[in-house]
Amino acid sequence: LGVQAAFLAAAWIATSLRLYVKIALTESHTVDDGVMYLSTVLYSVYAAVAVHGIINGGIGRHTSDLDPDSIVIALKVWYMCEILYAFISALIRTSICLFLLRIFNRGTNKLAKKMLQANIALVWVSSLVYLFIVVFQCNPPNYYWGKFEGLQGSCRPAHLVPNATVAHSVIAALSDWVIGILPMSILWQLQMKREKKIRLLCFFGIGVIAGIIMIIRIPYIKVLEISADFLYQTVDVALWSLLEPSIGIVAGCIATLRPLMATCAASTRSRKRSTSSWRRSTPAPNAILVTKEVEITVETGDERPLKPGRPLPDW
């Protein structure tokens, strides 16, 4: 529960900072923002459902230690989490791709745009196929947990869902690497300070890390097929499935926080200047206002006068 709370807190902190930037600094919201907000809300539902399964169901415990009611609750939770995961996974990657498309839209890199558009399409196709397999893995669908309540029905072969999960994970990992490596290759060619270039590359490198997590998760997925003690031995899969969306949300939000970082940097420099000025002469009562009159351009990092009431650039 502690690990899950940490993942959820990280996602909400990142999303809250993004929301602050959009309301207070850039004064604008775009489609990618809305998609990411929806992702965070669904991730919160996902986490709450998982907690319900841990506390009231049998997730993380041996099947032999559970009564039928606890097993039913746990399987309902697992089923719902698989469905939510498919949507969350697709929404997070869609938001990041839309953000990058908005950035690349200002240039002429048509190949990058096409790759990002193809990435969105591939992510949604794979997620919807995976969702269909998960929802209809049993006939009727509620036989997945209803078999412990005496319901009559049948399920598809045991290897179907694990294999579909592996395929979905591989496609998601490839998507993360496209999201991470494509901006890196473009940024490296831009004329900007090396320190700034490295900082931006690190931001997008988080997407590569998310892809690595998807690959690490794959060996644990096979437990879904062969485990006789399903609810206990699939805990590792559940943990990796909670970690990956959190990293995706954080990575997607960090990329939009440049205006906040620029404002903080300007504020820090202004305080240093005002302190130095105060020591050399008389106190400057309006020195703090400098932070509202200076803007750091995102592209170059240079300072320029900021007109009163003008929002900071989005990127």
UniProtKB/TrEMBL annotation:
Organism: Colletotrichum godetiae
Membrane as UniProt keyword: yes
Lineage: superkingdom: Eukaryota
Membrane-spanning segments: 6-23, 35-55, 83-104, 116-136, 166-188, 200-218, 238-261
The Rhodopsin domain, residue ranges: 17-262
Bilayer topology term: Multi-pass membrane protein
Keywords: Membrane, Transmembrane, Transmembrane helix
Family: Belongs to the SAT4 family.
Coiled-coil ranges from the UniProt annotation: none
UniProt keyword Membrane, yes or no: yes
InterPro entries assigned: Rhodopsin_dom_fungi, SAT4-like
Alphabetical list of PANTHER family matching this protein: INTEGRAL MEMBRANE PROTEIN, PTH11-LIKE INTEGRAL MEMBRANE PROTEIN (AFU_ORTHOLOGUE AFUA_5G11245)
GO CC, alphabetical: membrane
Pfam families hit by this protein: Fung_rhodopsin (PF20684)
Entry protein name: Rhodopsin domain-containing protein
Compartment(s) of residence: Membrane
